[in-house]
Amino acid sequence: MVDDPVLFRRGGFRLVARLRGVEDLRADDGQVTRLREFAQRQDGPADRLAEWLAREPGNRERFERALSGEATEATEAGKAPDAAPELREFMAVVEATPYWVDRRRLEKGARAITRAGLLGLFPLGDMSLMGGYLASRATKALVGTGEIERRATKRLVETAAWWIDVTTPGAMDRHNTGFRAAVNIRVVHAHVRRAMNSREDWDYERWDRPINQVQTAGTLLLFSLVYVFGTQLLGLRYSEQERADILHLWRYIGWLMGVDEELLPADEDDAWRLLWLLAATEFIPDDDSKRLAKALVESHAAIGEGRGAAGKVLAHVNVQVHSAISRLVLGKENADFLELPDDPVAQAAVVAAAGVNFAAETARRLIPGATAVQELLGGIGRRRYLKRLHEVFKLDTTLRQHVRAA
Length: 406
What we know:
By secondary structure, the protein is an all-alpha fold. The protein has helices spanning 12-20, 29-37, 44-53, 58-68, 85-95, 103-114, 121-132, 136-144, 148-166, 177-197, 204-207, 213-223, 225-233, 240-256, 268-281, 287-301, 308-330, 332-337, 344-366, 370-393, 399-405. It is built from 21 helices and no strands. The longest helix is centred in the last third of the chain and has 24 residues, at 370-393. The two termini are 38 Å apart.
């Protein structure tokens, strides 16, 4: 039996696991060995598509038309006999909806996430992204793309926009924004793998295959399970069914992203067991983890740029609050390693705010119609925020932009 990983010894992970009654979920050595096999597996259909896309510029447009549903029936990628076999194969894979997908549950899971409104962005950056930096093997491809410091803010913004796209009610219908976003990120991963596999300095023995199945499954858990318990630590409340529906939504998103069926958690217990396995085998931070964490912290400070003295105060508060949230969930040992600011006042303020949120959430569950109103308000806030992101950062959600960013 493998010892408890550092991530589960202290901080919010242990607290929520204990509250959920899943702290004793363990894996034996054989299960660890099985998981590690997936560190040498990538994504055949997406990798073959990436090779085809790189052959000539027009292929990218053909793929984007097929993904958006703009192709006519006569030339539809999955049916046309003269279409490239790589494109036909990939589109057939992503359009073959698994038997277990329940569209009603996808909708319910998205509504539960939408209810959090912009509060949901805090766990996204402070827990999901920051926690992911502890997995040093997974960070090598990110470091390898270069320009970490310069692109940190844009990467955070693009992640937030992608997350809103895939968690908007109705967005996961075929050819809709969420469906396209989930598939696009799969292709982006394939382009990054192609680039990393061509490097002579990639250390396969130490770092495994770039963006392998274990790492993609880890990303899935950071955006699903970690998001759920992160918002719970901030005072939000979900019913057991709502938590299950959120994980169901992300199970389908993960499937579209190319995660192997064996690594797609079917329920919350599965998700916690997989997170424990990943924490025991993948959460091994190094100097690159510190570098990425520093860049993310500095992106929070950038909010005050060009605003004078008031901007400096705003930047300081923003950094302290985000760092406090990260510390509460990751624990002191991990946060200290990442060299995150340690401000007890900010941490106390976050805990107090969580208490206020919990009280408001308790009232919401008791007042008829309050949940529907909160979902409406959360959706409005998210749409306005997404519109603002596109206006300020000139976001381009096409594959062309994503491949340049990779």
